[in-house]
Fold this protein.
Amino acid sequence: MRILVAIGFLLCGITSAAAQYLGNYTVNPVLPPAPPQLPGTFNNPFGNTQNSPHLYDSQGNYHGNLNSNQFDPNSVANPYGRYGSRFSPDSINNPFGAGSRFSPDSPDNPFGQGMRVYAPN
């Protein structure tokens, strides 16, 4: 039984280690800038889950794809999607939800950590 649990933790570690950390998405001027990325990484109009960076808060909750595709259902640019609507609590575009200036995870909080950005697996 312990061996199965150990293998499960090992597999989880391998899966999470595959995602490359790109930096934090924040307006905080004190935090170090994210490392340079290829042009078009964040504003890809044809982005989807397979080729766009992903946003995560400090609890590890997913908050959408960081691209400019308004038709991607998981994009922060989709005004009708869960992660792009200004009415969705999971959207960084909602000033009363995940995008609140007072939330420590919000990219719009000038004193917060922002959200972590990871490259797609």
The two ends are 30 Å apart (CA to CA). Residues 1-16 have pLDDT under 50 and may be disordered. The chain has one helix and four strands.
